[in-house]
Amino acid sequence: MIKIRGCLIFAIILVIFIIGPIYGEIPHLINYQGRLTISGVVQTGTQIVTMTFKIWDAESGGNERWEETQTVSVINGIFNVLLGSVKPIEAGAFQGEHAWLETLIGSTSLGRQRIVSVGYSYMAEKAESATTAATAVTANTLVGKTPSQFIDTSDTAQTKVGSLTINSNLTVGGTINGIRMVSGYVWEDEEPVTHHSRFIINLDSLGIPGKIKGVSVSIEMWRRNRGDFLWGSRAEVSEVLERQVIGYLYSRDGSEELWGGWEYAQRVYYVITVE
To answer: Which residues contact 130 (CB under 8 A, 6 or more apart)?
Structure first.
């Protein structure tokens, strides 16, 4: 009668599986060593034996998760094999609560041994390249994106450098702050005391939130007595307030320079920087 006493080399394999993810691919191998006896007697010399190894999800019956057959050299009753050297052992072989290793010599089964500890380190490979994960402390990529492209959902303040494109709806619970450019035009009006021609750009009347950070202006002048437009008049910004810009207009017709008057209708184009 042939008997086999086998064991998994826990300490050595544990080190291999810890180092594997750091220096390279996780090895799909398990080192398995045993002693072969016939009727209780350890054999001497060298024997060549065909062995089949299977991993099951139950001690008896159940589902087979992996199988391979090897030609094994038994030297003075001792053999040593690398399970997975013929057919790699995938991480799925160790899913669930239990895994059992069955050894066969020829067609004779020598029973099943429960695999513990080291075999389950295969599950660490799922953390190396997980399709899904309940939790993850860190990740090198997420759906092809690097950590710098992840969205931080914490309550702390964040700064986005570069462009951000949103192709769907955006819901904001607080205030959106930023620098933006606002452009348009206003017509001149008359300063009530000096009767000078002036213009006022007011964010309140325009319905624009924020504070004015800068402004540039140009004007277009309508000559009522000639019925045409004239470019080249000048506008001067007199005062820039938090929500309002005030300025005055000058017009040039030929060699004469004068304040805007009844014969001119001036339209001021502006570009405002708002924060």
So the answer is: 136
3-state secondary structure of 13: helix
* Residues 212, 236: Cα–Cα separation, whole Å: 17
- Report how far residue 57's alpha carbon sits from residue 103's, in angstroms, rounded to the nearest whole number: 15
Tell me which residue of 224, 227, 221, 215 sits closest to 184, measured CA to CA.
215
The CA distance from 241 to 61, in Å, is 84
Structure tokens at 158: 């964040």
Instruction: Assign 148 to helix, strand or coil.
Output: helix
What are the CA-CA distances from residue 185 to residues 11, 120, 165, 182, 263 (Å)?
Answer: 80, 72, 29, 10, 20
Structure tokens at 105: 């010599």
pTM: 0.41
Counting Cβ atoms within 10 Å, is residue 199 exposed (0-12), middle (13-18) or buried (19+)? Answer: buried
Q: 117-169, pLDDT tens digit by residue? A: 654 455 555 555 666 666 666 667 776 677 666 666 676 776 766 677 778 77
Among candidates 219, 227, 225, which has minimal Cα distance to 249? 219
Q: Identify the structural domains of the chain with CATH numbers, from first to last.
A: 2-128 (2.60.40), 180-274 (2.60.40)
Q: What one-character DSSP code corresponds to residue 93?
A: G
SS3 assignment, position 251: strand
